[in-house]
Amino acid sequence: TTCVFDKHPKPNLQYLLVWYDIPGAGMLGIPGWQYFDAVDLIDNLFTMTDEAEASARRQAEADAREEAETHAHEEAEARAREEEAHARQEAETRAREEAEARAREEEARARQTRAREEAEARAREQEERAERILQEMEEQRRRQEAEAAAVREEEARRRNALEEETRRATRAQEEAEQTVREAAEAAIRALAAREEIERQLIIGTQPVVVPTPEEIRLARERVQYDDAVSHIAIAGIAGSGKPSLINALRGLNNNDRNAAPTGVNETTLEISRYVDAHNPQLAWYDIPGSGTARTPDWQYFHSQGLYVFDCILVLINDRFTTTDLAILTNCHHFRIPTFIVRSKSDQHISNLMMDMGYDPDEEDTDRQAQFRQVARDQYISETRQNVENNLAEANLPDQRVYIVSKWTLLAAVKDQGPRGTVIDEIELLTNLYNVAFSRL
Q1: Is the sign of the CA dihedral 435, 247, 264, 287 positive or negative?
Q2: pTM higher than 0.85 for the full model?
Q3: Is the Cβ–Cβ distance between 330 and 323 less than 8 Å?
Q4: Which of 59, 159, 264, 369 yields a CA-CA distance of 20 to 30 A from 359?
Q5: Could you say which residues of the chain have pLDDT below 70?
Q6: How many CA atoms, within 13 angstroms, populate the side-chain half-sphere of residue 40?
């Protein structure tokens, strides 16, 4: 296929060669003997011309490649710009379409919202109208019920007033009948009481007089009655030693300051109140002696207001008198705690020793002790028996008699130890304090 010389340069920095395709012999119309000269193959070196051509060819190829690359780059950039513009246009189109869709949706929601609000407003208006109608009906019902209730209340008031008037009339009639019955019963009781008093007067027993509420109030004012204090009265016949006993119970001698006055004659003309310095919750009262011209014995308990005291000590001397029995009878009736006390025991025992033949000038202490013991036992026995017999004769319950000496009692109150022979002093103080403080 080769009819002309075909040169194929292959630029290579390591092998600078050029290849030639020589037409076959006998093809050029050249005689064979001239073939070698015709192709000028004498010098087969890589000439500068060949190098220049190769270099030019390389540069042309590089330029072609660069131009192709530039063209490709420009085409790529153009395509990218076109694609970017197309994408931007499509994005703008989508955004516009989405905005239009959102606007349409918002418009639809707005229309739905307006429709819902209008429907709700109409529903609320209907509910309010229905509620107003119900309220008006309820108010009308309440007015009707109130009017009916007022009518019923008025009827009930009239009926109650009529019933109350009937009850008052019935009660007034019953009270009148009760008053008549009570008056009749009171008359019967008064007659019976009068007969009993007359009977008691005949047999020598003084009656129990019941004080009126006004008498009780005045008696309380007179003794300065205080609910926070126990009020203890010392009562008995004149000359029984009441002031001395009060002084001993308060821890005082007869000549001490604030002591109750004492004397041979009756010194107490009215009720005297003495506060106990050792026990401020106790108040002692010296009651005027009974059996005197100033205080008749049959009025003693009532006239002195002994019914207001919390506790009463009945002080007896060498005999148990009708006054003592009257006091105990009234105390039993009014349920007032009482203590029967025999004072001056040391004096009575000494007098009994003298009656037994004891000589006080004797110096024999053993003989003196024997006389004192015998006299003491006899004195205690006779005193207790005397009280027991008198209580039984008066139909009063049996109770103990406390036999005391003011000196021994004073020493016990002052915690100085017993002075002389102790009989009932300690037990009197213990029992008396228990009763007095139990009511506070």
Answers
A1: negative
A2: no
A3: no
A4: 264
A5: 1-18, 23-54, 57, 190, 193-208, 263-269, 290-298, 318-319, 416-420
A6: 3
